């Protein structure tokens, strides 16, 4: 070290390192003498105090040049490098997804809809590539000021959700169609290739009920009293009357759903149509309507959107897990209309099932732990026979597996509870007008609307349902 005059760094300076080891500070303890030291001296002193990384050379140089400027402050002399998280992997789909976006029907000026392009089917051939898995990227480690490495959070790997009639290569990075058919996404994002069953006309007494392991295309109407069930998508170029129509994928209707309070339309993913009248509609994800929903019961896991030229919701009950958006809600006659958001009945059910499973797992874990501790005592006394030894190995594996399962269940419970508590994302939007006579329910809270309002959003805020301008 060079001559630092009468100034002793050990006595005159104090180095503190923050609890997270991401910052090092320098403070002058004594300020009476005129300290002289070089930047290199200071760096060597910091190293002797355990500060080895992230040195702030500019600050250190300035402190060595004009120490008196830094007497009465806590000076940052080193800053750690935080770890950079990795990128999550994802599934790149070749068919179905992009087209799903572009397949939303074109609205004409009079509010009717041109559905010609909707009925084009994206068929694939056996052996055709339908999806690729893009691997996650690792994160970049960080470093504390004391030189220790901070492990990064790596990107999450994503796995193919394998449905029917698809094959994945041994490296698990590409998915191919096993048969000729249509690529269809069903609940929980499973990818399938389904054969296509086409009806050229109405589903009536000539055709009868349909139950098909694949995608059904009806080039006509589905009449009252009939049943159409498909494990793929269902596409109808006409309308649906009071029929029972159920799909594990999505249901697309060119015309409307006129249910006359009979039957139902139920999809694992989305339901798209131009209007719903006295219908029962259930969708795992979204219900997308271009004209109106009148006197109907509609339930969607995520959102209900009614946003065409009319975009009208009147009467009935509309429930959505996250959001209901319409141009107009209710009417000038104050027809009773109920809009509920932030309700996910299936999540509450899953929560109940998980809690029951966790109780069972905890009991099993208790029993396993007791049995193991007895075997451990026998082992200590040298009384462990061959079959008892095997049992001990088996029980140890069981204990590890049960502990893992219990941990996963706990994480899922926390995730669901957060979703149920987090009513802050739930909202009801009236893009044009919300009329009196409407009842808004968000989570556990209810608000009755007496007077009409223009362009409003209802959301949960500070323990109440607040009405704010729509944005």
Commentary on this structure:
With 471 residues, the protein is α/β, with parallel strands linked by helices. It has four domains: 9-79, no CATH class; 90-142 and 153-185, no CATH class; 192-345 and 425-469, no CATH class; 360-423. It contains six helices and 35 strands. The strands form six sheets. The protein has a 21-stranded mixed β-sheet that branches. Strand 5 (106-107) and strand 6 (113-114) form a beta hairpin. Helix 5 packs antiparallel against helix 6. The protein is extended and about 105 Å long. The two termini are 65 Å apart.
Task: Chart the SSEs and their pairings.
Layout: H1 9-12, E1 13-17, E2 23-28, H2 39-48, H3 57-65, E3 75-79, E4 90-93, H4 97-102, E5 106-107, E6 113-114, E7 123-124, E8 129-134, E9 142-143, E10 149-150, E11 166-168, E12 174-177, E13 181-186, E14 190-194, E15 196-199, E16 210-212, E17 215-218, E18 227-230, E19 234-236, E20 244-247, E21 251-253, E22 257-258, E23 264-267, E24 271-277, E25 280-283, E26 286-300, E27 303-306, E28 312-320, E29 323-329, E30 337-341, H5 345-380, H6 386-421, E31 427-434, E32 438-442, E33 445-449, E34 453-461, E35 464-469
Parallel strand pairs: 15-17, 16-18, 17-19, 18-20, 19-21, 20-23, 21-24, 22-24, 23-25, 24-26, 25-26, 26-27, 26-28, 27-29, 28-29, 28-30, 29-31, 30-32
Antiparallel strand pairs: 1-2, 2-3, 4-8, 5-6, 7-13, 8-12, 9-10, 11-12, 13-14, 31-34, 32-33, 34-35
Helix pairs in contact: 5-6
């Amino acid at each position: 070290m060079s001559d630092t005059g009468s100034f002793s760094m050990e006595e005159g300076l104090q180095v503190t390192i923050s609890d997270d080891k991401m910052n090092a500070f320098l403070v002058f303890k004594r300020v009476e003498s005129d300290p002289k030291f070089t930047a290199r001296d200071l760096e060597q002193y910091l190293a002797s105090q355990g500060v080895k990384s992230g040195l702030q050379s500019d600050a250190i140089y300035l402190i060595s040049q004009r120490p008196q400027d830094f007497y009465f402050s806590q000076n940052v002399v080193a800053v750690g490098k935080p770890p950079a998280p990795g990128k999550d992997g994802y599934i790149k789909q070749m068919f179905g997804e992009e087209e799903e976006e572009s397949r939303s029907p074109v609205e004409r000026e009079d509010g009717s809809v041109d559905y010609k392009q909707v009925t084009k089917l994206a068929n694939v051939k056996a052996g055709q590539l339908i999806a690729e898995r893009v691997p996650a990227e690792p994160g970049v480690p960080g470093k504390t000021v004391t030189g220790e490495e901070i492990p990064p959070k790596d990107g999450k790997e994503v796995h193919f959700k394998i449905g029917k009639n698809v094959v994945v290569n041994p490296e698990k990075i590409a998915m191919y169609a096993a048969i000729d058919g249509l690529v269809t996404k069903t609940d929980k994002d499973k990818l399938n290739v389904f054969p296509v069953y086409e009806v050229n006309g109405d589903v009536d007494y000539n055709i009868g009920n349909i139950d098909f392991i694949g995608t059904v295309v009806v080039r006509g109407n589905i009449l009252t009293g009939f049943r159409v069930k498909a494990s793929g998508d269902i596409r109808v170029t006409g309308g649906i009357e009071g029929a029972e129509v159920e799909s594990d994928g999505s249901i697309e209707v060119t015309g409307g759903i006129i249910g006359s309070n009979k039957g139902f339309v139920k999809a694992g993913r989305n339901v798209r149509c131009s209007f719903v009248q006295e219908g029962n509609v259930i969708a795992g994800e979204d219900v997308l309507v271009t004209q109106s929903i009148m006197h109907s019961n509609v339930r969607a896991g995520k959102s209900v959107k009614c946003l065409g030229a009319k975009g009208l919701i009147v009467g009935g009950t509309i429930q959505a897990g996250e959001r209901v958006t319409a141009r107009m809600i209710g009417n000038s006659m104050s027809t009773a209309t109920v809009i509920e958001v932030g309700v996910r009945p299936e999540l509450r059910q899953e929560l109940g099932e998980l809690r029951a499973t966790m109780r069972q797992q905890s009991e099993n874990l208790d029993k396993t732990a007791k049995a193991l501790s007895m075997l451990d005592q026998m082992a200590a006394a040298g009384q462990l026979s061959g079959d008892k030894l095997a049992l001990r190995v088996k029980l140890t594996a069981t204990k590890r597996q049960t502990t893992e399962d219990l941990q996963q269940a706990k994480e899922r419970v926390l995730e669901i509870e957060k979703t149920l508590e987090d009513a802050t994302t739930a909202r009801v939007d009236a893009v044009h007008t919300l009329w009196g006579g409407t009842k808004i329910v968000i989570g556990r809270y209810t608000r009755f609307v007496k007077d009409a309002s223009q362009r409003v959003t209802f959301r949960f805020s500070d323990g109440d349902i607040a009405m704010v301008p729509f944005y």
